[in-house]
Design brief:
- There is one protein chain.
- By secondary structure, this protein is an alpha/beta fold.
- Helix content is about 35%, strand content about 20%.
- A 7-stranded parallel beta sheet has the order 7-6-5-4-11-10-9.
- The chain is globular.
- The mean pLDDT is about 90.
């Protein structure tokens, strides 16, 4: 972005030029983060993620008390969008340069080793512009966690129509690990098909070593069926422990299932 200046008359009568904070005036503070990343042909940041170790527990962003439940806990955003993308949420704090809220979030997430990219909801039956804007928010927040917190940010898979996968997952071509969310049983056939199509796409196009799975299902075999293509192609699939999964497993065990 070009710098703009304006003439200013000093007290001694001399004229100098003063720079206009154009990024602030135009609400374009996200440029500070985008300028620290290489962008791909879709103008999305190119993300690198090739860790030597992986998280062993996923705490939800709202579960502050569980951020250090293990030495390798990751924070994920597997909740309704309104819980993390509210008016005073992280993205708006970045976008509007809200110093007070940004300082709050730096303290809130301080010391995190792992973060899973935000799980913004994407839909088939809403305007494409809205989906694209949510995709962009994901990438800005990922950059913020890398630059401001120093966390290892693991990309989160987005399940969209097969023809849109090259766009929505672009920028992750150098990542060796991705996270998938199955949450509970995926009962609808078309949703299971989309997960499997996404698994096949990332396995075929990325140098994946590991897929991490956020699942709250009490029986792991129900989730693992969705990742058979990855398993057959030598990719390690790990279901990561989380609060809801712990509860569901304990309930099954108490019933002798």
């Amino acid at each position: 972005m070009k710098k703009l200046t304006v003439k200013v008359k000093n007290e001694d009568g001399t004229i100098t030029r003063k720079e206009i904070p154009i990024k602030n005036r135009l609400n374009y503070r996200i440029a500070d983060y985008l300028n620290q990343s290489y962008l791909n042909k879709y103008h999305l940041p190119i993300h690198h993620c090739d860790p030597d170790v992986y998280p062993d527990f996923i705490a939800l962003s709202s579960e502050k008390g569980k951020f250090s439940i293990t030495a390798a806990t990751a924070v994920g955003f597997y909740q309704y969008d309104s819980s993390f993308d509210k008016m005073e949420g992280l993205y708006n704090a970045i976008y509007y340069g809200n110093k007070r809220k940004l300082e709050y979030y730096k303290k809130y997430y301080k010391g995190l080793k792992f973060v899973i990219g935000p799980d913004y909801s994407i839909f088939d039956d809403i305007w494409q512009y809205e989906n694209t804007s949510r995709l962009f928010k994901i990438r800005i927040i990922m950059l913020w966690f890398v630059i401001e917190i120093g966390a290892i940010v693991i990309p989160n898979a987005i399940y969209v129509s097969k023809d849109k996968l090259p766009i929505y997952l672009s920028g992750f071509e150098e990542c060796t690990v991705m996270c998938f969310s199955t949450k509970s049983h995926i009962r609808r056939g078309y949703k299971r098909r989309r997960v499997k199509e996404t698994v096949k796409y990332v396995v075929d196009n990325f140098p994946l070593k590991t897929i991490l799975v956020y699942s709250v299902c009490g029986k792991d075999e129900n989730s693992l069926k969705l990742f058979q293509y990855a398993i057959d192609n030598g990719v390690k699939v790990e279901i990561i422990q989380n609060t809801r999964r712990q509860f569901n497993v304990s309930q099954l065990e108490s019933r002798g299932c």
